[in-house]
Amino acid sequence: MTSAPDSIIHRAELLRHWLNDYNYQYYVLDQPTVPDSEYDRLLRELIDLEMKYPVLKTPDSPTQRVGAEPLKVFPSVLHEIPMLSLDNAFNEAEVIAFDRRIHDKLKTTTSIDYCCEPKFDGLAISLIYQQGLLVRAATRGDGATGEEVTQNIKTIKAIPLKLRGDFPAHLEVRGEVYMPRAGFEALNKVALQQGEKLFANPRNAAAGSVRQLNSHITAKRRLAFYAYDCGKIQGLNRHYETHHQLLMQLHHWGLPVVHLIAVVQGIEGCLQYYQKMAALRENLPYDIDGVVYKVNAFQLQQQLGFVSRAPRWAIAHKFPAEEAITTIEAVDFQVGRTGALTPVARLKPVLVGGVMVSNATLHNQDEIVRKDIRIGDQVIVRRAGDVIPEVVGIVKQHRRQDAKTIEEPSRCPVCGSHVVRAEGEAIARCSGGLYCPAQRKEAIKHFASRRAMDIQGLGDKLVNQLVDVGLIEHVDDLYRLTVDQLSVLERMGEKSAEKLIHAIEQSKQTTFARFLYALGIREVGETTAQALATHFAMLEDLMAASPETLQTIPDIGPVVAQHIDSFFHEPHNRKIIQSLLRYGVHWKAKSISPVESGPLTGQIIVLTGTLISLTRDEAKEKLQALGAKVAESVSKNTTLVVAGENAGSKLTKAKQFNIQVIDEEDFLKLL
Ligand code: 9MJ
Q1: 117 CA: nearest ligand 1 atom
Q2: Fold category of 88-318 in CATH
Q3: Tens of pLDDT, residues 329-347
Q4: Which uninterrupted H or E stretch holds 377?
Q5: Model confidence, pTM
């Protein structure tokens, strides 16, 4: 490569420095110092220099933002620390309950300081900076794995390619990529002129732009970014005590942080902040769909921890949902995975908060009766965030004479089986079970879904098609499919068939929790599946567990325990599970110690009796995180026994073997 004369090297350095500075002044400080034309002129000069002397290109050069060769797919990447979502509160009572839970958990009555932030309606992104350079950007994905979108993210001028000041060696910044309203309107205006499909709202436009395989297209979209959190940080030379301090530091490192953040005292302060933002909302240059409250002190955040996929120390307080009025043209009953019949209103299409809505749920027959909804009625339709739109009520004064009452069918609209409704239940169900093609289809869709077995490319339409032509009946049949069978399907070439077979093959390697979730046991969602997978070392143990044993697991009550028990007692389900395992569905056996080394490495600890301050599972997790192995029974290899209240035979045995025994107080000290 041709080396450049010193004067040129120097000029390129200067240009990079100026351009990066102008960007920072414009996007982070919100104080532009030069006109756009000057920026463009300098950028052009740098591009020309780099074209002539490619050695001059550096990863943080502003020219690196313009886009690269189109990608075929986004590589998937594992987040260093899972990216959490936020719990939602839809009214003041839920916010007050959140604050109360925090006080209860912290056992305090003094008011908590909260950091309040606007809630952006965009796409959550993780940015990794190493030695100050942006090296990786990824979407949140399912929280554990996301899609790598570095090249696209580099086109967003608000995101620094290089950090400023005294940055740590490794920094993961988290925030939201969003599309300001002006950018959104401009985009749709062009789309309209060119007869292309319009984006429904700025959120979809932002997500669609970031997930573009061609980064030249992303570069043309007017995207912006605000940072609101950090993931892993290494090599930090000072300590931060609060979330707000960290946000200020992010700002100093050159990241945009919204100026509307505020630290307030107590929940009263939060509610005042909410009112202020609700009043400001309309005049902001971007959409916000609520505000976020975060416990400000990191020490308290740590004590509060997480539940499922959200932190206990934060909540999103959503603005009220958007509503519109339209007419119900018809009502259909949809059959779900568990046979539940859901009435769905077919509406005259209407825009609700920027999204065209033509279907809305009526929930169940009791709701229809309670709200006195009839076909032909004018109704209020509401949508909030990503949830399915619902019919809230009717406009009574517009009731037409010929409005028709809605009858719940007595037979399943899909398979003709009897519809039954259990005593006291609001939900009517098709009694066809797996005889009913609708239930089978839904079970297979659920099995294949992203959070379950994650069979990429096996969408709803394809499942319907496969069941309709009789290629599959149950989930295990998926693993019998061949390329030849698939290729004859409509709109399925050999290439796509091969791809799907490959994806099905790949899905065989899964996790215990995903597998349990995929089975579609009633009321076993991801959290319960995870709790079951944590509790039981092996599937056989779970299948043999009694409802009583199941109820000892956190969050599993008598109803869920009964559903799990019935599921595993049903011969048909056992057969399908066996068949899945025979086809090679597998997961890594639970390692007793997930941590390779820690202060308790080498220790084999047994927990017995009742612990007061934490559950058995929490204690186990904590010990494992410190490197210990946690065993179920006392043996000669046991190094320590933790005895809670009413400890029994394990304690006796420990004494027999002369093994050290500690009580709960000492155990907490040990942790
Ligand atoms: C948004 N969307 O504006 C968080 N968010 O914090 C803000 N999201 C968040 N914070 C932790 N302001 C997880 C998500």
Answers
A1: 12
A2: D-amino Acid Aminotransferase; Chain A, domain 1 (3.30.470)
A3: 999 999 999 999 999 999 9
A4: none
A5: 0.58
Tokens of 233: 């940080």
Residues with CB under 6 A from ligand 1: 84, 86, 117, 119-120, 176, 228-229, 292, 314
Residue whose token pair is 């739109």: 389
pLDDT at residue 72, rounded to an integer: 74
Residue burial 108-146, b: 16+ Cβ < 10 Å; e: rest:
eeeebbbbbbbbbbbbbbbbbbeebebebbbbbbbeebb
Residues of the chain with CATH 2.40.50.140: 322-405
CATH placement of domain 322-405: 2.40.50.140
Q: For the domain with range 604-670, which CATH number is right: 3.40.50.300, 3.40.50.1010, 3.40.50.10190, 3.10.20.30?
A: 3.40.50.10190
203, 157 contact by CB (below 8 A): no
Residue of minimum CA distance from atom 10 in ligand 1: 228
Other residues' Cβ atoms within 10 Å of the Cβ of residue 423? 4
With a cut of 70, list the residues of the chain below it in pLDDT.
Answer: 1-2, 67-68, 70, 353-354, 384-387, 590-596, 613-614
225 C-alpha to center of ligand 1: Å? 12
Residue 119 falls in the annotated catalytic set? yes
427-589 has which CATH code?
1.10.150.20
pLDDT attached to residue 1: 57
Q: Which of 52, 105, 107, 119 is catalytic?
A: 119
Tell me how crowded residue 224 is: count the other CB atoms within 10 A of its CB: 21
pLDDT computed for residue 564 by the predictor: 95
